[in-house]
Every structure is written in C-alpha cells, then in structure tokens.
C-alpha cells in the first residue's frame, strides 16, 4: 500500500514526514512510503540516506519580497506536474500526507485534482500557507500545537487531532551518556557538553556568537558539539579541536542529544519536541523573522513551564551566550529542574499515534 509524503525545503518540514513514515513501516511493513520534495531543499541531502524511494522536483517557494521572481515558481510547478503524473500513475497512492513547506504544495494539489485523499501535519501554532490552503480538502489534520486547529478552515472540526509533533523518539533504553561522550572524543565524565544547533540551514547570529566565544577562550571543562548548517560550515570548520566538534548538519541528531548536558538552539516546533522528549535543558534563541513570530511564542511557552531559558536574538552576543551557559553549567540543580520541566511536556509517541490514525484512514473501504 503506497503512501506519498510531500514536504520539505527545511528539516522542520521534512523530518516530521520521516518520523511518521518510519512509524508506519514499524506498524505495518506492507506500507510503502514514497517521498516527494524539492531539488533545492535539505531533502536533496537527507533522503538518499533514509532508504525511502523519493523524487525531487524543480520547485520554488513564493518570493514574497521579490514578487517579480515568482515566474520561477510557476515554471517549476509546471515542470513538476508531469513528473507527478508519472509518480502517481505508476501506482495510485492510498493517501498523500503533506507536512508543509513549498515542497508539499504541488503534490497536494495534484492529489486534490485527482481525488486522492490527503492528510496534513502542521507543526506550529501559526499554520503555514500550504496547510491553510489545503485544510479544507483534508481527510485528517494532525496538529502539534492545539492553537493551530483554531486557525484552520476544515470541513468538520472533528478532522483535526492534537497529536503533538512527530519525532523519532529517544531509544529505549536511553544511550549510555559516558559512551556517547566518548563517541564524540570527549571525556566520559565531568564538565559540561554543550550542543549548539541552529536548524538545517544554520543560524548566522548563533554561529557568530559561539565563534566569538571560542576565539576568546572556552572555560575549562566545557566541550561543544556545533552544527553550523551546511552553507556556513566552511566559515567555521577551522574552530574544530579536541574540545569542539564542528559538523555541517546532524542527521540523525540522537548521538548529539545523548552526549549533551545543555543545548543552545532555535525554537522551532520540532526542535522543542525533541528537546522535551530527551529531557534536555536549553537556551533558546527564537528566529525573530519566523512567520507570526511563532518561534518566540514557542520559546516563551516552554519558558513559562520552567523548561528553558530564552535569549532573544537582538541580545545575543558572545558575552551574553557565555554568561547564560556558564551560569547554568555551574548550577546543576537548575539544570535538573529545567530538564524535568521539559520532560513533563514531552509527547515522544506522537509519530506512532499519527501512524495509527493514518492506518485506520487508509484501511477504510
């Protein structure tokens, strides 16, 4: 039984689909996930290593700030339509699952035009354009934040389910912390391992702040796992040392989470879902240009629950980053409290719940 997953551009739209697809295959090995994405998205680098069949299309986003470039969007959609016809025609899918981003719109449109059922997974409290556009056609909508459902026009409110955001849950039993540290070349005990990750595209302000701190000199006992983003890796790769592991991207990221005591990250919905599932304390730097400023809302919500410290990007400097991390690293009781509060908000089985609901949907006569 074939199910097509459409979404990508960024890891925040691709990874939910991968988590659901893996859960589906675990529950029913006869399910055949197929991924459709964009040639210019992170899926170009990630999908080949997943083992899932996939097709990348010449898709472009809407250029809101440069509308004269939207001819690229129209041409890419026209070119993709024929390829989608061959994909769908080779074996008609039972369902198309859209996980957002410009990479999902073409496949969802093709499915609607050809009366193939669609389901949507929305990660954020402020639904993206693709989710808002296709919600009225969906047979099911799975939201990661309850507020998102209130902002969608659907045929029936009962089609919206608050499942939490789908992630690959931490393994059970959890990886041994000492072994995970050794795998990164760090001492198995003592000190603090800090993970700094700005998402699949990286985060220049976070990278620059950490770069300045490293140049000034890290405190004794601090070890860093630094995911720069692929486009920025060459700029910072020379900072690698026995105490600083520099990587362009972490996929999978579980090895880094298993070794870390504290995380500095953006506040995307999937990132927060993972941090809570792993019970990791964090310093969050919300992306101020995110749609509807949803990352700030995400971060402040977790902060109110006692699960993180928020450091707004306009205040981010090497000195402020160092002060925030040093204060937490020196206060193990505070770190433990942050971790416990994050873990209390965790919904690590969201992907499995969504997969079960999808199986019920596709097995209907």
Describe what you observe in this structure.
- By secondary structure, the protein is of the alpha/beta class.
- Helices cover about 40% and strands about 15% of the residues.
- The longest helix has 21 residues, at about 70-90.
- The model has no long low-confidence stretch (mean pLDDT about 90).
What key attributes describe this structure?
365 residues; alpha/beta; Rossmann fold; 2 domains; seven-stranded parallel sheet; six-stranded parallel sheet; 15 helices; 13 strands; 16% strand
In brief:
This protein has helices at residues 11-27, 43-46, 70-90, 102-113, 129-134, 146-149, 177-183, 204-216, 233-236, 254-259, 269-278, 294-304, 318-329, 332-344, 350-362, and strands at residues 2-6, 32-38, 54-57, 95-98, 118-122, 140-143, 160-162, 192-197, 222-227, 244-247, 262-265, 282-284, 309-310. With 365 residues, it is of the alpha/beta class.
Q: How are helices and strands ordered from N to C?
A: EHEHEHEHEHEHEHEHEHEHEHEHEHHH
Classification by helices and strands: alpha/beta
Biggest sheet overview: 7 strands, parallel
Give the strand tally.
Answer: 13
Radius of gyration: 21 Å
Strand order of the largest sheet: 3-2-1-4-5-6-7
Q: Can you count the helices?
A: 15
**What do we call the CATH homologous superfamily of the largest domain?**
Glycogen Phosphorylase B
Question: What name is given to the CATH topology of the largest domain?
Answer: Rossmann fold
Structurally, the number of domains stands at 2
- Give the CA-based shape: globular
Task: Give the overall pLDDT as a whole number.
Answer: 92
């Amino acid at each position: 039984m074939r199910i097509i997953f459409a979404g990508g551009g960024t890891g925040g739209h691709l990874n939910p689909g991968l988590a659901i697809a893996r859960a589906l295959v675990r529950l029913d090995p006869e399910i055949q996930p197929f991924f459709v994405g964009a040639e210019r998205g992170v899926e170009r680098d990630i999908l080949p290593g997943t083992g899932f069949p996939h097709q990348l299309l010449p898709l472009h986003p809407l250029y809101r700030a440069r509308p004269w470039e939207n001819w690229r969007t129209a041409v890419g959609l026209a070119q993709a339509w024929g390829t989608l016809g061959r994909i769908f025609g080779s074996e008609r899918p039972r369902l198309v699952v859209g996980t957002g981003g410009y990479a999902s719109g073409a496949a969802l449109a093709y499915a609607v035009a050809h009366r193939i059922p669609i389901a949507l997974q929305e990660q954020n409290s402020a639904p993206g354009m693709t989710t808002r556009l296709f919600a009225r056609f969906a047979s099911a909508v799975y939201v990661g934040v309850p507020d998102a459902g209130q902002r969608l026009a659907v045929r029936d409110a009962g089609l919206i389910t608050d499942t939490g955001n789908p992630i690959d849950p931490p393994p059970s039993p959890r990886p041994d912390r000492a072994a995970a540290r050794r795998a990164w070349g760090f001492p198995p005990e003592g000190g603090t391992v800090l993970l700094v990750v700005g998402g699949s595209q990286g985060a220049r302000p976070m990278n620059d702040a950490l770069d300045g701190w490293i140049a000034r000199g890290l405190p004794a006992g601090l070890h860093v796992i630094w995911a720069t983003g692929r486009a920025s890796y060459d700029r910072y790769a020379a900072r690698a040392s026995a105490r600083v592991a520099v990587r362009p991207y972490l996929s999978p990221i579980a090895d880094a989470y298993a070794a870390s005591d504290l995380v500095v990250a953006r506040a995307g919905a999937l990132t927060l879902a993972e941090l809570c599932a792993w019970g990791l304390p964090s310093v969050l730097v919300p992306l101020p240009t995110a749609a509807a400023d949803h990352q700030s809302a995400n971060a402040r919500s977790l902060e109110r629950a006692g699960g993180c410290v928020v450091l707004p990007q306009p205040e981010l400097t090497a000195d402020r980053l160092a002060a925030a991390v040093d204060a937490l690293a020196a206060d193990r009781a505070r770190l433990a409290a942050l971790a416990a509060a994050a873990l209390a908000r965790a919904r690590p089985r969201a992907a499995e719940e969504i997969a079960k609901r999808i199986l019920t949907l596709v097995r209907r006569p």
